[in-house]
């Protein structure tokens, strides 16, 4: 049975601003590989099934890599959208469940297993190398790229308080974003990651960031994300 766990249980250090869960000391993860950290958190148990089906454990644990992990909810979002597609195109009673996805990944049908590599960047991306405009990186998926940015929260934002904004603190909280690109986008101060148009890319908040493991860095994508950014291209 596909489990959906809405509360984020993997948490990052106090420097970060997250939308769910609690803040705790993450030093315990530094002696665990990225795969081991994911395996220890219930909100990634379905992701672990996908990684195992695609035999991608070594890629997840690539040394000095950064992984942007989709949660169980992101996978469930994908299954819902794929079910809607097959019902509309083929059979009103059809469904695309977890078993179907695991079969596609195990056999790499239409490159489904390879698509998981769009969440992997073969570079260590601590906060110190990130910028508010963003930097474009090649992902481990052949021909694919993404922008990673570290953006301040506007003080007048409706959700500013949720991210730690406080009038008593002079510096604004910052959030990490992962922007999947579907086509070329010329980054510049006038064209930051936050301004990527729909159809060109998908600007996605990371709700837990900067988790240092023995093999790299782990970030978590927001639960509204749909696995593989399904349905976001023109």
Overall mean pLDDT: 86
Structural class: alpha+beta
Oligomeric category: single chain
Sheet having the most strands: 7 strands, mixed
In the CATH classification, which architecture applies? Answer: Roll
Question: What fraction of residues sit in β-strands?
Answer: 15-25%
- Strand order in the largest sheet: 2-1-7-6-5-4-3
Number of strand segments = 7
The CATH superfamily bears the name FAS1 domain
Give your account of this protein's structure.
The protein has 234 residues and is of the alpha+beta class. The chain has one domain: FAS1 domain (Roll). It contains six helices and seven strands, in the order αααβαααββββββ. It has a seven-stranded mixed β-sheet with strand order 2-1-7-6-5-4-3, with no helix packed on it. It starts with 33 loop residues before the first helix and ends in a 13-residue tail after the last strand. Residues 1-24 have low confidence and may be disordered.
Tag the structure with descriptive keywords.
234 residues; alpha+beta; FAS1 domain; 7-stranded mixed sheet; disordered N terminus
């Amino acid at each position: 049975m596909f489990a959906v766990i809405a509360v984020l249980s993997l948490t990052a250090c106090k420097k970060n601003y997250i939308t769910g869960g609690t803040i705790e000391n993450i030093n315990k993860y530094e002696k665990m590989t990225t795969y081991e950290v994911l395996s220890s958190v219930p909100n990634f148990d379905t992701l672990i099934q996908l990684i195992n089906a695609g035999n991608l454990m070594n890629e997840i644990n690539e040394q000095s890599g950064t992984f942007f992990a989709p949660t169980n909810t992101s996978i469930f979002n994908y299954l819902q959208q794929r079910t809607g597609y097959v019902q509309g195109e083929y059979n009103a009673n059809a469904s695309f469940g977890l078993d179907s996805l695991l079969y596609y990944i195990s056999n790499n049908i239409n490159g489904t297993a390879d698509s998981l590599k769009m969440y992997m960047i073969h570079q260590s991306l601590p906060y110190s190398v990130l910028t508010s405009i963003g930097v474009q990186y090649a992902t481990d998926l052949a021909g694919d790229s993404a922008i990673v940015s570290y953006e301040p929260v506007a003080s007048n934002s409706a959700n500013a308080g949720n991210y730690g904004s406080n009038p008593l603190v002079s510096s604004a909280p910052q959030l990490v974003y992962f922007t999947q690109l579907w086509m070329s986008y010329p980054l510049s101060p006038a064209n930051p990651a936050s301004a990527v148009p729909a159809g060109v890319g998908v600007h996605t908040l990371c709700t837990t960031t900067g988790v240092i493991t023995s093999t790299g860095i782990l970030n978590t994508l927001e639960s509204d994300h749909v696995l593989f950014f399904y349905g976001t291209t023109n």
